[in-house]
Specification:
Elements: H1 17-21, H2 39-66, H3 70-98, E1 133-134, E2 137-139, E3 156-159, E4 162-166, E5 171-178, E6 181-189, H4 200-203, E7 206-211, E8 217-221, E9 225-229, E10 236-241, E11 245-246, E12 249-250, E13 254-259, E14 265-269, H5 279-284, E15 289-295, E16 300-308, E17 311-316, E18 322-327, E19 332-337, E20 346-350, E21 355-362, E22 370-377, H6 389-395, H7 397-421, H8 424-432, H9 436-439, E23 448-452, E24 458-462, E25 474-479, E26 489-494, E27 502-505, H10 510-521, H11 527-540, H12 545-557, H13 577-585, H14 594-610, H15 617-641, H16 647-656, H17 660-664, H18 677-691, H19 696-700, H20 707-722, E28 726-729, E29 734-738, E30 749-752, H21 756-759
Helix pairs in contact: 7-8, 12-15, 12-20, 13-15
Length: 779
């Protein structure tokens, strides 16, 4: 037993209480009743007292050595407890490794990819992204809905001077710069309304977004699938459902996308076994991601590449001969061939990246190339050192297995509790365990952006040395001077874990060149605003007499017969004269992106439907008149400067020399291809107007309302009359030839002369025209 107060023996008597309360005194120590003590005696007594204290301490130590008592038993008990704990931990590890039927129900194969390679030479990053600051935002003054914040903006898209992004909770937001801040407006809401972000399975999570030339914004939602959104009206259409079977497997995590010129959508499915809150499992286990292709004609998706470990960023090549997809779990980018001898096959575009790749976008450089965002860095990029927790776990299969099984067993406990009680704490715990945002404090990120050429070589990089740009997934550029943006402009970075957008001011030099090239390659011009402004101007003022006189003057001065302007290759209208005009006048080329012209055409297509198929050429008449005026001026200058025939004269002379038999070969042939949805819609609207009793010469006739087209048709009629053929105008710019010998118009034949799509070929947009449905498109 431990030494304690000694109890009196049977033959001993207890001392009185007063004696027990008296403090002990050492032998020879003076008591209060003693007499006066001299200095020498006091010194001697103090020395003796110190000596006695030392002897007492030695006696106590000797007694503890002779009887260890409680001290020894505590040590033994502690050693036993530690041993039992070690055995339990060891047994638990063995069970996690070898015991079957434990969640998660996946395998953990050996890691067989190239380990990260450090950056060297010109690949070393430039510190362009230092001193990043959060963007100041406020709700738009006219917005009456829910107050929102930028929580986890994963991707960015830009149209004109406006940014669009998606946040946790399923909202698609519009960010307009205003007085140095960004005003937020909710464009639309994916999924249902939810109370907390842990209910994302119900309320949605936008991941990737791109504008297409048709003016629509295409969005991938991690929980709900693939959407197209009209950002002006908020109308959305679900093109592909999440959790539906595609090529034999369910789509569980829609990530990023890119759209081809013909409307085909290439999108990535990051995993077929876990949702976005458990994405860490996709990094550690067998790969299950895929590259998918959505066909707008059949409205179905198919898998192009399977077994991609966490498929993320998607980017088409400039010629659309291959498509790139980032494989985040193996730090590499894959390439799938769409054209050429390798069509249908895939290979490795680049591997051994110094970080986990996320989004891929065009760099805009003259020689091509791409930007790749590394959301997680493997060691310091500037020092060229590797490392990090992810590469270390990839090399140790046993540790990966134990960690993932322990993590999901722990999560399973909360799942069981949530099923039983439905509490919010368990729901939030389920959402947090395995989520990338929960793992962020243990991961290194420097906002690293790699620049890769068209051959798969790293040619440069830039990053944030102070780590102020953290876990960036994409960026966009806005120039300065508009909306209160200072200086040369700013670069804005999205991140799936940050509760804000980050901005970095643009500095002169190489950074400015990079920002300008990237902005040009990845921005859709806001054509709608400029055209709407022009419509307002036209509606607010009527055409003056001077404009009408100019129209008549230029119509009379147009050289040549109009019949020849539509007979080359059987389908040439005024739009085909534009290259001739540019060639003769040496006008500069348009510097807009490839998508700008198709974007304008798509907007015109939507305007026709929006205005109930009212004449589109009515709004374009001034532009056509200016074009004809310029053409006439150029023709006169060529006539005065040289005696050689101009291109336009040669064109007309060739057409005049043809006989009726020859010109018949130039008549438009019937288009046997699949009709464009816009043509079908246009015809249906015309039928509706006829059935409603409107006059043919009203909005039903889309050609005769235009002054220039009426002039061309009049010239056609005069030309026919010179040949002895009577002709009158028909519906939509057709000429009805009347044979006098047969009379009463019997045997009449219609020859198509010119139509609306010959003036502006809006039907060249091959993407499906959006319907008015609010939700899924029927398959």
């Amino acid at each position: 037993m431990c030494p304690g107060p000694q109890q009196p023996g049977p033959g001993e008597s207890q001392a009185p209480a007063q004696e027990q309360q008296q403090p002990p005194t050492l032998e020879g120590e003076a008591t209060p009743s003693a007499g006066v003590v001299t200095n020498g005696e006091a010194t001697a007594q103090m020395g003796k007292a110190k000596k006695d204290k030392k002897e007492i301490v030695k006696v106590i130590q000797n007694k503890r050595e002779e009887d260890p008592g409680c001290l020894g038993s505590r040590r033994r008990l502690g050693l036993i407890c530690l041993s039992l704990l070690g055995v339990l931990i060891f047994m638990g590890c063995l069970m996690l490794i070898f015991l079957p039927c434990l969640p998660p129900y996946v395998s953990f194969p050996e890691y067989n990819a190239t380990l990260p390679r450090p950056l060297v030479g010109r690949q070393l990053p430039k510190d362009w992204l230092r001193n990043a600051t959060p963007v100041m935002t406020e709700m738009d003054r006219d917005y009456k809905g829910e107050v929102l914040s930028l929580l986890g903006p994963e991707s960015l898209a830009r149209r004109g001077e406006t940014l669009f992004t998606g946040i946790l909770g399923g909202h698609l937001l519009k960010l307009a710069p205003q007085d140095g801040k960004f005003s937020l407006t909710n464009v639309t809401k994916f999924g249902e309304q939810c109370q907390d972000i842990s209910e994302s399975l119900k309320c949605g999570r936008p991941m990737g977004m791109r504008f297409h030339s048709d003016g629509l914004l295409y969005v991938t939602d991690a929980y709900l699938g693939l959407y197209s959104v009209n950002v002006d009206t908020g109308e959305k259409i679900r093109l592909a459902k999440s959790h539906e079977y595609i090529s034999g497997q369910r789509s569980m995590l829609a990530n990023d996308l890119d759209i081809a010129k013909d409307g085909t959508i290439y999108w990535s499915d990051a995993s077929t076994k876990v949702k976005v809150e458990d994405v860490i499992l996709e990094f550690m286990s067998e790969p299950s991601g895929r590259l998918l292709r959505y066909d707008p004609k059949t409205r179905k998706s198919e898998a192009l590449v399977k077994r991609i470990q966490c498929a993320s960023g998607v980017q088409l090549s400039p010629d659309e001969d291959f498509v790139l997809v980032a494989e985040g779990g193996k730090d590499r980018i894959l390439r799938y061939y769409l054209k050429g001898p390798k069509t249908g096959s895939s290979d490795i575009f680049i591997d051994g990246l110094p970080g986990v790749p996320d989004k891929i976008r065009k760099s805009g450089r003259p020689d091509g190339g791409y930007f790749v965002w590394c959301i997680i860095s493997h060691g310091s990029a500037a020092k060229g050192s590797g490392g990090g927790i992810l590469p270390w776990l990839r090399k140790h299969r046993i540790l990966r297995t134990m960690l993932m099984r322990a993590l999901f067993i722990f999560e399973g406990m909360f799942q069981n509790a949530h099923r039983r009680f439905g509490d919010t704490f368990s729901q939030k715990a389920i959402y947090s365990i395995g989520n990338l945002a929960s793992m962020a404090p243990f991961l290194l990120s420097e906002g690293l952006v790699l620049e890769i050429d068209s051959h798969g070589n790293i040619t440069g990089s830039f990053y944030s040395a102070d780590q102020s740009v953290y876990m960036a997934s994409e960026m966009h550029v806005l120039p300065g001077g508009r909306g209160g943006i200072k200086g040369l402009g700013s670069i804005y970075f999205a991140s799936p874990v940050n509760p804000y957008l980050l901005q970095v001011p643009i500095r002169e030099g190489a950074m400015l060149d990079m920002a300008m090239a990237y902005s040009k390659a990845n921005t859709l011009p806001d054509v709608s605003n400029s055209l709407e402004d022009s419509d307002e101007d036209e509606s607010s003022s009527t055409p003056s007499e001077e404009d009408n006189q100019r129209t008549r003057t230029h119509s009379e001065e147009l050289p040549g017969s109009p019949t020849e302007m539509d007979h080359v290759e059987g389908h040439i209208g005024l739009k085909e004269v534009i290259p001739v005009m540019n060639t003769s006048m040496d006008t500069p080329k348009n510097n807009m992106t490839d998508n700008s012209m198709s974007g304008e055409l798509a907007f015109l297509e939507r305007r026709v439907d929006k205005e109930d198929n009212a004449t589109t050429t009515e709004n374009l008449t001034p532009a056509l008149v200016d074009m004809v005026s310029t053409l006439v001026t150029s023709w006169k200058e060529n006539q005065q400067s040289t005696s050689e025939p101009s291109l336009l004269e040669s064109f007309f002379a060739t057409a005049d020399s043809l006989t009726d038999e020859d010109t018949s070969t130039f008549s438009p042939e019937e288009d046997t291809s699949e009709e464009d949805p816009f043509k079908i819609r246009l015809q249906e609207e015309m039928k509706k107007k006829k059935s409603s009793g409107e006059e043919d010469d009203d909005k039903g006739n889309l050609v005769l309302d235009d002054a220039v087209l009426r002039f061309l048709l009049e010239r056609k009629r005069k030309f026919k009359e010179q040949q002895g053929v009577k002709a009158d105008f028909g519906q939509n710019g057709t000429i009805r030839e009347v044979d006098e010998e047969r009379g009463n118009g019997e045997g009449d034949s219609e020859k198509n002369f010119i139509a609306l799509d010959s003036i502006i070929d809006v039907t060249t947009v091959t993407t499906p025209f959006p319907t008015t449905e609010e939700e899924d498109v029927a398959t």
